[in-house]
Amino acid sequence: MLLKTYQEQELLCNVSVNGATTQADTYAFRGDLVLKEGDIADSSGRRHPPKAVVKQAILLVKDGKLTTAAGALTDLALLPLFIERYRGDLADEVSVLFYVENLDKALKVDLDGVSATLLPHQDGGAVWNTLMDDLRLDKEDFKGQSAEDKVITIQQALLDYRPKLDSHSYEEALGFTVVLRREARGPV
Fold it and tell me: What pLDDT, in 10s, does the model give residues 96-135?
């Protein structure tokens, strides 16, 4: 099972859902997906926290291949890391949708044969809720479903999601990035 392999390789963290769905040979995951591991911290091989992740990732694995990948990227520059690291695990007709924090324009990108829908996400809010809104789903669409089966509902809605977006090369898409300015938070 692909998700078990990822777990053994310590590529999954902050896991909220990781299990089988009611469909045969179909597994769902929600949490963070590691793009770049942290440095080795000690002689036991333990690592520091990951250097880069797909935050709040939503993955669906069917027949050993990723059929859905969604989540948030802090920087558009992380997209090639995702494709490079997980390319061999992607199904031919994979649905890829990432919310990108430093992106100023919604667009489609084809990078090394993988098509991805990229949407601005400068507020850094909850991906699941934002995705539900974008896919025009509400709580009734998930009524009575297990946490794993809810990911199937998201995947089915993604198959019908066809926003009218301009297609750009990855290099062109980099021209639509912005410098993020975060508000300082914490005690005054």
Answer: 999 999 999 999 999 988 999 999 988 878 999 999 999 9
SS3 66: strand
User: Six-digit token pair at 61?
Assistant: 């694995």
Torsional class of 186: left (φ above 0), alpha (ψ -120 to 50), beta (otherwise): left
SS3 36: strand
Amino acid, single-letter form, for residue 47: R
For residue 32, what are the contacts with CB-CB under 8 A and spacing of at least 6?
12, 13, 14, 50, 53, 54, 55, 56, 57, 71
Q: Give dist(CA 166, CA 44) in Å, integer.
A: 48
CA distances from 88 to 68, 85, 92 (A): 14, 8, 10
Please tell me whether the overall predicted TM-score, pTM, comes out greater than 0.85 for this model.
Answer: yes
Tokens of 93: 């007709």
Kindly tell me if the per-residue pLDDT of 40 is higher than 90: no
Q: Which two tokens stand for residue 107?
A: 């667009």
Q: Phi/psi zone of residue 81: left (φ > 0), alpha (ψ -120 to 50 degrees), beta? A: alpha
Strands 107-111 vs 114-120: parallel, antiparallel or unpaired: antiparallel
> What are φ and ψ of residue 78, in 5° steps?
-85, -15
